Amino acid sequence: MGDMFREILNIEQPPTPELTKESVMTKKKGLNEKTRMSRRPEGMHREVFALLYKDSKDAPPLLPTDSGLGYKQNKARLGMKKVRKWEWTRFTNAARSDGVQFCHWQRASDEPKEYPFAKLNRQLSIPTYNLNEYNTHLRMNTKWNKSQTDYLFELAQRFDTRFVIMADRWDRDKYGIKTVEDLKERYYEVIGTLQKIKQAANNEKKIYVFDAEHERKRKEQLKKLFDRTQAQIEEETMLQNEMRKIEARKKEREKKTQDLQKLISQADKQDEQATSTTPQARKQEKKLNRKKVPVQQKINKADVMTTMETAAIRFGEGVNKGTGIAMRSQKMKLPANFGQKRTKALEQILAEFKVDPNPPATEEICTAFNDLRSDMILLHEIRSTLSSSEFELETLKQVAEIKQEIAD
Questions:
Q1: In this structure, is the dihedral angle defined by the CA atoms of residues 146, 152, 156 and 161, taken in order, positive or negative?
Q2: Are the C-beta atoms of residues 139 and 169 closer than 8 Å to each other?
Q3: Which of 53, 57, 204, 336 has the lowest tally of Cβ within 10 angstroms?
Q4: In contact, 146 and 135? CB cutoff 8 Å
Q5: Quick one: the chain helix, strand, coil %, rounded to 5?
Q6: Is residue 306 pLDDT above 50, yes or no?
Q7: Which residues are within 8 A (CB) of 23 and not within 5 positions of it... i.e. 6 or more apart?
Q8: Cα angle vertex 24, ends 22, 26, to 5°?
Q9: Is residue 155 pLDDT above 60, yes or no?
Q10: Strand pairing partners for 107?
Q11: How much is the pLDDT for 296?
């Protein structure tokens, strides 16, 4: 459109530069220089690089400059309103009983009111007793007399039952030496007795009893714990780690014992089933099965062999399941999930009793050999359980000794 107007008005058009190799190379060179300047140096964080360069990719200034534009205002903008008047006034604190006066700044327009921090002065209501109550109920304690008890309640009223401060301010020359636990014990003893006297009138059920002996033992234990040496701390840490290991081994042995009990119960059930397979029992079972199940499968020889096997080891699980010829020796093969440890244990027991690990694979030998190996595995489990029980007994003795050492 611009070219058409120039032609109508006879305006000379700027000559279009010729597209040459040199002009293209100079353009590419300029682009490369810009990209080189905007590239972040190695080792510099992205946040620091963003502070150095602006959006226009200009180089940072060599000298610090102040543009006058920032977040803070240089001059305060004061309004034309008059400032409110403040006065140096006197006030009294309602929490003080001496009537002393203090001064503070206050707005002239504000009305005088109560000092706001006076409400924080909370005082406890310390119960009192008369001479008749003391002689009747509070005189039983031989460690305290009336003057000491009166002085104790005077300090409690003065310091709001802060027993540490009360023990610090206690007059030892006049009233003897008393610890914090002694003060607490006598104070709560008197409070509990007075509550029992007034319980019928006020229906107070909860009476606090302070155990001074337990508090003394607790502080003594804390002092012993604080005075431990580094060697004692390391020894205690070692004993705690050993106790954790013992507890973990104990749980593992309990789990193995439960598994062994399951195997023993399964073997007992299998023996009961084997002994109960008489002709009369089979007839009764067939009658019951006909009543419960409408169609009964045929029992072949392989099924009979599998019922004779024990629950501990199931030999020859894959025999006669597929098509083709199966050898009788496959019935003596250990199952795939038998485990390497149990296999080695079985080999050691066979060698111990001098039994051939590969006997002839006749039908009677297969059944007898499988039963023998099942009993051997059961014997191995019983032996391991016995050894673990003995080890557990020794461990419990060691734990008892460790706990006694820690307690001492």
A1: negative
A2: no
A3: 336
A4: no
A5: 60, 5, 40
A6: no
A7: 17
A8: 70
A9: yes
A10: 86
A11: 37
Asked if the model's pLDDT at residue 219 lies above 90, the reply is: yes
In the chain, what's the furthest Cα-to-Cα distance? 132
253 vs 404 pLDDT, higher one = 253
pLDDT in tens, 90-135: 999 988 888 899 999 999 988 888 888 888 888 888 888 989 888 8
The pLDDT of residue 184 is above 90:
yes
Both structure tokens of 254: 């309990």
Q: In the chain, count of helices (H) and strands (E)?
A: 15, 2
**Kind and range of the H or E element at 86?**
strand 86-92
| Residue that the structure tokens 């509990």 belong to | 192
Q: What is the CA 324 to chain-centroid distance, rounded? A: 59
Q: Is the pLDDT of residue 319 over 70?
A: no
Q: With beta carbons less than 8 A apart as the criterion, state whether 406 and 236 touch.
A: yes
Structure-block tokens of residue 149: 């008890």
Per the structure block, which two tokens stand in for 244? Answer: 């954790």
CB distance 176 to 152 below 8 Å: no
202-209 long-range contacts (CB < 8 A, ≥24 apart) are none
> In this predicted model, what pLDDT tens digit does every residue of 220-242 receive, in sequence order?
999 999 999 999 999 999 999 99
Q: Looking at this protein, which amino acid is placed at residue 105?
A: W
Strand partners, 398: none
In this structure, what are the phi and psi dihedrals at residue 237, rounded to the nearest 5 degrees? -65, -40
pLDDT at 391: 83
Three-state secondary structure of 89-151: EEEECCCCCCCCEEEEEEECCCCCCCCHHHHHCCCCCCCCCCHHHHHHHHCCCCCCCHHHHHH
